[in-house]
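Incident log entry.

Two folding requests arrived from the same account within the same minute. Monitoring flagged them as a possible duplicate submission, but the sequences differ. Recording both here for audit purposes.

Request one:
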Amino acid sequence: MTVEVRPASEFEDVRALLGPKSPQANVCWCLSYRVPSKLNRELRGPARGEYVAGLLHSGTPLGVLAYDDGEPVGWAAVAPRADTSFARNRKIPHVDDLPVWSLWCVRVRPGHRGKGLSHALIAGAVRYARAQGAPAVEAYPLDNGDARVDLTMAYPGLRRNFERAGFTHAADTTSVLSGHPRVLMRLDLR
């Protein structure tokens, strides 16, 4: 396995990780935290993918993709917190006024899990944010201890994976996902 993580730049590769099997489906496309709630509800079916394509072509930072021998197999969303709904989220606190970047979704395609790709994606997202001048990266993973997590709901990542990547606990949150509390983890890049 030869894994390479690089900034998302090819729409078809992003679609392979985030797009639905049926073009009419209303899957997330990793827009839920990227756009205001009203717009997120209005974007239906193919309009969701078209919106992501527009962001990609405008140069908006979307995230990073992991490739295994050229095939897109993983995704991590990372962007300035100010450009996401985390900027206004009442359940996930602001630690300070630092213009941090948020890393809120880590996804590995079925058939490629258990190979360390989530670790590679977190590291790749941090490299990308650092290259864009981010002073720190925040994540809001599940603090599940040893409890099992439904893979669909594990998209924010797991606390232990972020700790392994050097992130430290910065704050508790009041956000709960799939029965597990989320914590605010931060990696200072200064």
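Request two (distinct sequence, not a duplicate):
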Amino acid sequence: MTRKALVVRGGWEGHHPVEATELFIPFLRENGFEVRVEDDPQVYADSPTMGETDLVLQSVTMSSITPEALRGLREAVVAGMGLAGWHGGIADSYRASSDYLQLVGGQFATHPSTDPELVRGGETDNYLDYTVEITDLGRRHEITAGIDDFRLTTEQYWVLHDDLNDVLATTTHPVQSYHPWHRPLTSPAVWTRDWGAGRVFVSTAGHSLDVLQDPNVRTIIERGMLWAARAR
């Protein structure tokens, strides 16, 4: 049976939702998915569509969602559909919807900037060199097995999260003289979440197209989509 993937994209254009998702649509098709693309999360309120969807790949930063659409998304995941995404497209969506935040299990709080003396007013002010560290669980998990710790130069997400997440990779925010916090803080960088009969996958890396094409990041996202998708 051909599985069905629904790509939902939109919101803030700074995360290039169209171009970013286009990087992964060929992979889904090569792995046997029939792919449908929508530019509005209201599709989640369409019960027949959601009932036959095996995977939602979402890239919608900020924006908003109606109660009907959110209910449809939650019910579909509980029934066995997978939900996957990266960066703000899943971890910074629908900020006003607490039920969405509970479903995903992590919410973007900030991405610390570089030294204020080096700030120039562009997006690279928030680019830091940091390490993505694979956890013990991650070294055994099919999404991240065989991947070693790796470095990125991009936004380093600080994420608010809970203990229902199975964390496959982390990143640690150091303390700098210009920061108001007083000890290093470790945030999840890759996690999965079981929700009802469904699965959720999140990678916080993915701010820009070059990051999504990093071999480690791309491999993790590709494996994460396959892991999250409903088995037929």
